[in-house]
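Budget justification, computational time. The allocation requested in the original proposal was used primarily to generate structure tokens for proteins on the priority list. As evidence of use, we reproduce two of the resulting records. The first is shown immediately below.
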Amino acid sequence: MKTSELKNKGETGIGTLIIFIAIVLVAAIAASVLLGTAGSLQQKALTTGKQTQQEVASGIQVISVSATNGQTGSIQYFEVLCKLSAGSDPLALNDTMFNFDTKNSTQQLTYINLSTSASTTQFGAVWVKTGPDYINNYLTVGDIVRLNFTSSTPISQSQTVKMKLIPKRGVIVPIEFVTPDVISTMRVGLYP
């Protein structure tokens, strides 16, 4: 072989090597971008999954709704016995709203940190039973709590009442019932 042919082959080999190195560098950069994006997406998916699980799994179960002082033919003082659904995270009562709707009135109640209070703007809570992980002002698994409040207007017989317990995180609990045809006893069972 002639020297000029060897020189041309050497130049071609160096050019091919430069192209090969460029392809490897571009592939490495693309791989790092893909890995970074995949890691970011995985983190977002884990966060979204955890939030969704809290939304779906967390919730309040209403055991019963009753009213007191029904001897006058109408009721105004309500008690809601409730507990936390199995597998739920502790629920802060300060972050829970309570809507109470009747034919004549609508109330939005917030939690007050006094167990004996029952007003037309706030609801109180009395722990009937505390669970193993009891936290003050929180509803935890194993707790049974009696929420109490006062209707802004007396509710008479055969009236539809709608309630909603709305936690900051978790499932909204709608409750609907019709008051009895005859209200004449001290304690009136309303739900279930």
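The second record produced under the same allocation is shown here.
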Amino acid sequence: MPTTFEDTRRDDLFHRRSLVRLGVSSLALLMSRAARVHGAERAGSIEDIKGEGFAESGAVRRLLEREAPVFIADRVGTGPASRLTLQLGRFTRIRLGERTRLVIDRYLVDAGGEFTLESGPLLFDRPPGSRPSPVQIRSPFGLIAVRGTRFFAGPSGTVFGVFVERGRVAVSAGVGEVILGAGEGTDISHPGAPPTPAKRWGRERIRAALASVS
């Protein structure tokens, strides 16, 4: 029996519906795999990004875009000439400069957490009046302990610098510790070296530090 136009149209419609069902099944499978990969608790999301941003979990790397989720144990990174802003909970915002690597070791929404700054600059920011939450940021240069504040940490000229714009932080490195208040900073010349005494940073140095994360 010869094939009619109606037969051809029905066959075409059947194949298209089959492809749609296949696409939906494949999407569901991918989402299921992603859920298994990211079984860790969600820590927050990407508020803003310029250039290249990515997150690594084990051997899996995924590119980031605005509103993409990030998870506990993710290593979040940026490429050359890139910037990225993480929104963690309602109040905590972390800005990353270029070639930065930050690991979210532990985070409880609006209750504090622990991070590892492997490389690059960051700006930690919580708005005035928000509930203090204990946060620790480790790096090869030392440990930064903070409760609700706004501060910069990262390369500053030839040293690793920490500058507090608002609030207070404790910086421990080598065998020393220094407490920084608003407008004060400290330098760590190399891993294992103690932090320098708290001192006021000049306007140009502050401008250069903030420009590296904005």
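A brief technical remark on that second record: The chain has two helices and 18 strands.
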